[in-house]
Amino acid sequence: MPRQPITQKKIAEHVQRLGELYPPISLDSVDRTIKNPQAVADRYGHVIDYLARVELEVDRNVLELLCLLPDVDDTNKTFYADVWQPQEIQHGLILDRLQQDLGRQPAEPHLDVSFKIKILGALANLKPIQDVAKLLYFLTGASTERQAVLAYNQINSGMRELGESAISETIISPIKQQEPGHFAFYQMSATAMIQDKVLRPWQVFLTRVLREKSYNLVGTNAMDRYRADMGGVVVQLGLDSDLEGYAREVGRVETRLLWANEQGMEFPPYILRALRESVELYQERLGHTGRFATA
Ligand SMILES: [Fe+2]
Ligand SMILES: [Fe+2]
Questions:
Q1: Please, which residues have CB less than 5 A from ligand 1, an ion?
Q2: How many C-beta atoms lie closer than 10 Å to residue 201's C-beta?
Q3: Which domain of life does the protein's organism represent (predicted)?
């Protein structure tokens, strides 16, 4: 069945609906009951630390967006200013308080815009490069939001298994409800760019090259210490038993949009490479500190 074309109007309506349906979650709406903090910390402490930091880094993501898309349009502006940033920052604050309730350290978000982004941002003053940056930005959004959806799904079932109904019902479920709308926004925006042939073939080629060279899993900020942390998240969520299946899920949008001509490509190889590398860095770190995963 052919896909319905995605119009800018459809995307704008989606953004408006998200704003109406999902007001930012307030800290007061959270029930802070934790039945067994030690059990929660043992199973998910590291994952919650990681997600709290990444959610709090939304403020840097907004700066990156302004750098990459100096001519940002109204729909994108409404999305990041009225929907995305206000929702994500609450996710971060709520998870940061949860991690402290579990006896862990507060998150330390990394808020510096990287040199690479600044360079790409400077080049993005040229319209053809800005379009490339825009597609990269949407693909990154789709991939990272998809990772968030998958992580919150796993955590939610885990919390229910642990009998932590307050965490599941008043923290993870409400957060989890907001992520698919973010994913859909990026997915629709990237799809519309390809479908409307906004990019010339050389620009699509450049996007592929840059994507391959700069792909990063959510929250790794192209730094090995965060890559190792992400490896720990993958392991703690039990996703390491099927990295290929996870790469397929996370890479679905870009496989379809960027690599459709590659016969039989299930997912872009750079995604699986990034996952393997993260898990290896995590295991290496465990080896060095003499600690081993028990789960
Ligand atoms: Fe979030
Ligand atoms: Fe999100």
A1: 55, 88, 91
A2: 8
A3: Bacteria
Which ligand has the minimum distance to the alpha carbon of residue 182?
2
**Which of these, 262, 237, 241, 236, lies nearest to 251 by C-alpha position?**
262
Q: Sorting pLDDT into bands at 50, 70 and 90, what band is 46? A: very high
| pLDDT tens, residue by residue, 17-36 | 999 999 999 999 999 999 99
CA 145/CA 180 separation, integer angstroms? 7
Q: Which of 121, 140, 138 is nearest to 67 (CA)?
A: 121
Distance from C-alpha of 292 to C-alpha of 295, rounded to nearest angstrom: 9
- Among all bound ligands, the one having the nearest atom to the CA of 174 is 1
Which ligand is nearest the CA of 142, by number?
A: 2
Contacts for 209 with CB less than 8 Å, ≥ 6 apart: none
Q: Which domains does the chain have, with CATH numbers?
A: 11-289 (1.10.620)
Q: Where are the alpha helices (DSSP H) in 162-268?
A: 165-167, 173-195, 201-214, 224-236, 243-258
Distance from the CA of 39 to the center of ligand 2, in angstroms? 27
Tell how far the Cα of 179 is from the centroid of ligand 2, in angstroms.
4
Q: Is the overall model pTM greater than 0.70, yes or no? A: yes
- Dist. CA 216 → ligand 1 center (Å): 17
Which ligand has its closest atom nearest to the C-alpha of 146? 2
